[in-house]
Design brief:
Shape of chain A: elongated
Helix content of chain A: 25-40%
Largest interface: A-B, 20 and 43 residues
Number of strands of chain A: 3
Strand order of the largest sheet of chain B: 4-3-5-13
Distance between the termini of chain A: 57 Å
Radius of gyration of chain A: 18 Å
Low-confidence stretches of chain B: 1-11
Strand content of chain A: 15-25%
Largest sheet of chain A: 3 strands, parallel
Radius of gyration of chain B: 22 Å
Distance between the termini of chain B: 55 Å
Strand content of chain B: 15-25%
Low-confidence stretches of chain A: none
Strand order of the largest sheet of chain A: 2-1-3
Order of helices and strands of chain A: EHEHE
Oligomer: heterodimer
């Protein structure tokens, strides 16, 4: 008979999560752009904002930033994105 | 009659080592099965700690590092119960937000939590700080670092190809322990500089990259030797044009090198200051050119000039004297030292964290 082995896992299961449902259209939506803090992220995201509004009819773009590339996004930022945005682009550049 | 090779195919399906592999809870090497008996023995190694005590939460998934969960992982790593207070202090450091375990375990930079261990605990539990100090062959060195890695994986949730995405990885990710050779050091122990007494034991975690060995057989004065070591560090850490470094640096001096330096009356502080002052390059040498596209572009140069990083047309390698952590370790024969470049430092990344090890 196999011996009982104790469970070493201390976090909530596998890290993989399913993707959220995809948006079928961006027209009239509110989209968050989250700058994760690498150099020139703002240049890249400025261009994304223009494209989202001009080409895809996004109504509002909300801009947020992480404290640095290595730090977690602040809870209030996460809550703001969850409460009023239909989607988020979390982006990097260099 | 079964041959030896056939026997490898008749492994019983309830082999606990194989079961643990299937559960994905190993670092790639076989682990010691965490039976209840072994678990209870491990807990007895830290009798003053409650088994339900929460040490902290450990990134990137912020699992709860309880004394119990850490004990299970310490069993799997092969630790003896007397190592357990060291592992607990190490996990406490991992859970300290200044270390930024979340970032160091998911960054593309191939970081490991290098652990510098000081104080009486080294000799009490048999940590090797002499020949092969950073290498293999010693249970305490091998398994304490491994227990931290298993805690990162199994409590922090950092698994390769899932959240852990280091481009290269490095051997130190299995175990990265530096026990200071205090007995052969000409200076006070490393942890005394960080506010502890010589009679206390402490563990310092540092988010570091791969070690670079630096040989110097011929320098016989402090200035010669530290110049030579600094010249090598100036070209080798991160990139030859990465001035100033994003991170802190550990310099592990061999006893022979340390004694050559101390014989001229130099302290650790003098070594740090000399490296800070002398390891620098001219801006012209740091521009992109025939030796590579990496380097100072016009925007970066302007920013550095405005912030005082460029001084008299040159840039220092180290951000400050304090960004160089100096430890003495290794055997008494051999003029080899080691430099370990850090991951990005301070608010951008990680700050070294020191915790007291609670032993009798």
């Amino acid at each position: 008979m196999a011996e009982e082995l104790l469970n070493p896992i201390g976090y909530g299961g596998k890290a993989e999560k399913p993707l959220a449902p995809r948006l079928t259209s961006l027209r009239g939506k509110t989209i968050a752009l989250l700058d994760i803090g690498f150099p020139n992220s703002n240049v890249f995201l400025d261009r994304i904002e223009t494209l989202l509004k001009d080409r895809y009819g996004v109504a509002t773009v909300v801009r947020h930033a992480k404290p640095s590339p290595t730090r977690m996004v602040k809870t209030e930022v996460r809550q703001d994105i969850l409460s009023r945005c239909h989607g988020v682009v979390e982006a990097v550049s260099s | 009659m079964a041959t030896a090779s056939a026997a490898t195919h008749t492994m019983p399906v309830d082999d606990p080592i194989e079961q643990l592999y299937e559960q994905g809870v190993t670092d790639g090497f076989p682990v010691v099965p965490p039976t209840r008996e072994r678990f209870e023995r491990m807990l007895a190694g830290a009798p003053d700690r409650s088994r339900n005590e929460l040490i902290g939460t450990l990134g990137p998934c912020y699992g709860e590092a309880t004394v119990e969960k850490v004990a299970i992982n310490a069993v799997m790593a092969g630790c003896k119960p007397e190592y357990f207070p060291v592992v607990l202090a190490g996990v406490e450091a991992l859970c300290d937000e200044r270390l930024c375990a979340h970032g160091l375990n998911v960054t593309l930079f191939s970081a490991a939590p290098w652990a510098i261990i000081n104080g009486p605990v080294r000799l009490q539990i048999g940590l090797n700080c002499e020949h092969n100090a950073l290498g293999h062959g010693f249970r305490a060195n091998a398994t304490i670092g491994r227990a931290l890695r298993l805690a990162i994986m199994n409590i922090g949730g950092a698994r390769p190809h899932e959240l852990t995405k280091a481009t290269m990885g490095q051997p130190g990710q299995y175990s990265a322990i530096i026990a200071e050779n205090e007995e052969e050091s000409p200076w006070e122990p490393f942890h005394v500089e960080r506010g502890f007494s010589e009679n206390e034991s402490a563990i310092t975690l540092f988010a570091g990259g791969s070690p670079q060995q630096i040989s110097d057989f011929q320098s016989r004065s402090a200035e010669q030797l530290v110049s030579s070591i600094g010249f090598t560090m100036g070209g080798g850490l991160w990139n030859c044009k990465n001035y100033p470094l994003f991170g802190d640096t550990i310099l592990v001096l061999s006893p022979e090198h340390a004694h050559t330096i101390a014989a001229d009356g130099w302290s650790r502080k003098d070594v740090r200051q000399f490296l800070y002052d002398t390891v620098k390059k001219s801006v012209d040498d740091l521009k992109p050119g025939k030796d590579g596209g990496e380097g100072f572009g016009a925007n970066l140069l302007r920013a550095f000039e405005n912030s005082g990083i460029v001084v008299d047309g040159s840039v220092r390698k180290f951000r400050s004297p304090q960004s160089i952590l100096i430890v003495v370790a290794g055997g008494t024969a051999g003029r080899f030292s080691v430099a370990i470049p850090g991951w990005v430092a301070d608010d951008l990344g990680s700050t070294p964290v020191t915790k007291r090890i609670n032993i009798d």
